[in-house]
Amino acid sequence: MYLHGTSRINRQGHLEIGGCDTVELAKRFGTPLYVMDEEMIRERMRSFVKACREQTDFAFRVAYASKAFNTLAMCRVVEEEGLMLDVVSEGELVTALAAGFPAERIYFHGNNKSKGEIKRAISAGIGWFVVDNFVELELLQQVANSLGQVARILLRVSPGIEAHTHSYIQTGQEDSKFGFDLASGQAFEAARLSKKMKGVQFEGLHCHIGSQIFETEAFTLAIGKMARLAEQCEQAGYPISILNVGGGFGIRYSADDKPLAVEEVIQAIAETVKREFRFAAHQPEIWVEPGRAVVGEAGTTLYTVGTVKKVPGIRKYVAVDGGMTDNLRPALYQAKYEALLANRATETETEVVSIAGKCCESGDMLIWDIALPKVKQGDILAVGCTGAYNYSMASNYNRLPRPAVIFVNKGEADIVVERETLEDVIAHDRIPMRLQKQMVSEA
Ligand SMILES: *Cc1c(COP(=O)(O)O)cnc(C)c1O
C-alpha cells in the first residue's frame, strides 16, 4: 500500500498515521475505524491555495466540496485554512453553520434544492447559489423576493465534455441530470432570464466535468466552451465576474492512478482562462472546488480480520468487520483500493487474497486479488485512501452501526464522529399500536 501523508511504518512494524500507532488506535477505538490524517488534509488545502496564489495574473478562490467528507470538525479545519465551502443539501449546510463556518463563504449546489432549503440558505446569509435549472431559478427568485433579499448566483452549465472516468461519475456530458445545457442554448437563456429577475444577481458560470480526472485537457476543453458562453453573455451586456471550473482532481487510490500535481492543473487552468478570455474587459475570478483531492488520500480505514475461507483452486476470501456499509465505492464504481496488515506491515507478502465485507451481498467485496502476508483472524487490515466518499456514503445496511471517525495529528487521536451504537440503529424505529406485542394481563 502506498503510504500517503504522515503514514509510515514504525519500529514495531506497525502502520503509524499522524504519529499514532494504528494497532493501538484499533484497540482504543474499535474497528471498523476511519482514521483521518489532519496534517495531510491541511497540507492538501494549502497546496491548492499556494498553487492558486502563484498564478498572480488571477484572483483565485478554493472551495472544499464538502460532500466528500463533511463533519463539524472538518468544517472547522476548512474555515481555519481559509477555504470556501460548497454544500449540496440542507444537512451539509446545517453541519457547516453548526460548526460556526461563516455563511458568506458557503455556496449551494444541487439539482433539486427544495423551497425549504433555499429559504434556510438565504436566511442564513450564504454567499452564492449555483443554479442548476429553470425551475430552481424561478423558485429562487420567488423565495429571495419574499424575503426581501437578492441571491447571488452562478449558473451551472453542462458543457458537453466527458472526463475520462467511469460513466457513473461523469457529469459534464450533454445527457446529464446536472446543469443548463450549453449546446442547445439553454445556458445562455438562463443567463438572459436571470438578468431580468429582481431577486437574483447573475455573477458567473460553473461547470464540473467529472471526477478522478488525470489530464489537464478535460479542464482546458471545458474552459474553452465556457469562455464562448461568457463571451456571448458579455456581448449581451452581462459579463461574468466568476468562473467556477469545478473539482474532480484525481488522486492515487492504487498504483494504476497517476494524479497530476496540483500546481500543474492550476497552471493549466490559469493559462487557458487567460487565453480564452482575451475578449473580456475583466478577467473573471477563477474558483476551483476539490473534494477528494483534499481528503481522499488522508483517510485510512482499519478493520479486524474475521473469517478466512479458501475455495480450493480458486481464491482465498478474507472477511473484515465492515464493507460496503463503510465503503460503498467498490460496489458502486468498481473502485480499486490498496491495503496492508497494520500489525505486520514489514512482513513479506506470501499470498494473494480477496477482501470481503460482512454484508449479505456478493458484490460486497472491498479488494480483489491483493498480495498480503499470510492473513490470520484478528489481524488489523488497513485500507488506504478512504477519506473521500466513504464516511459520507456510509449506510446502516444489515443494520450495521456506522464506524467512528478520528482525526490523528502529531501523536494525538480525537474522535470527530462517535461510533454509532445498536441503540442508535433502532432509535428511529416505531412500532404501530396494532403491531405491539400484547401483554397478557394476569387479572
Ligand atoms: C462532487 C463535486 C465536486 C468534487 O468532486 P471531487 O471529485 O471530490 O473533487 C466538485 N463540484 C461539484 C459540483 C461536485 O458535484
TrEMBL record:
GO MF annotation: an example: diaminopimelate decarboxylase activity
Pfam entry (one): Orn_DAP_Arg_deC
Chain positions with N6-(pyridoxal phosphate)lysine modification: 67
Residues of the Orn/DAP/Arg decarboxylase 2 C-terminal domain: 34-387
Entry's EC annotation: 4.1.1.20
Residues covered by the Orn/DAP/Arg decarboxylase 2 N-terminal domain: 41-295
The keyword Lyase is annotated on this UniProt entry: yes
Catalyzed chemical reaction(s): meso-2,6-diaminopimelate + H(+) = L-lysine + CO2
Keywords carried by this UniProt record: Amino-acid biosynthesis, Decarboxylase, Lyase, Lysine biosynthesis, Pyridoxal phosphate
Cofactor(s) the record lists: pyridoxal 5'-phosphate
InterPro entries listed in its UniProt record: Ala_racemase/Decarboxylase_C, DAP_deCOOHase_LysA, De-COase2_C, De-COase2_CS, De-COase2_N, Orn/DAP/Arg_de-COase, PLP-binding_barrel
Domain of life (superkingdom): Bacteria
PROSITE patterns in the cross-refs: ODR_DC_2_2
Binding residues annotated for pyridoxal 5'-phosphate, in chain numbering: 248, 289-292, 389
Pathway the protein takes part in: Amino-acid biosynthesis; L-lysine biosynthesis via DAP pathway; L-lysine from DL-2,6-diaminopimelate: step 1/1
Binding locations of substrate: 292, 329, 333, 361, 389
Keyword Amino-acid biosynthesis recorded: yes
PANTHER family: DIAMINOPIMELATE DECARBOXYLASE, GROUP IV DECARBOXYLASE
Complex and partners: Homodimer.
Family, as annotated: Belongs to the Orn/Lys/Arg decarboxylase class-II family. LysA subfamily.
HAMAP family hit by this protein: LysA
Function: Specifically catalyzes the decarboxylation of meso-diaminopimelate (meso-DAP) to L-lysine.
Protein name: Diaminopimelate decarboxylase
Native organism: Laceyella putida
Gene coding for it: lysA
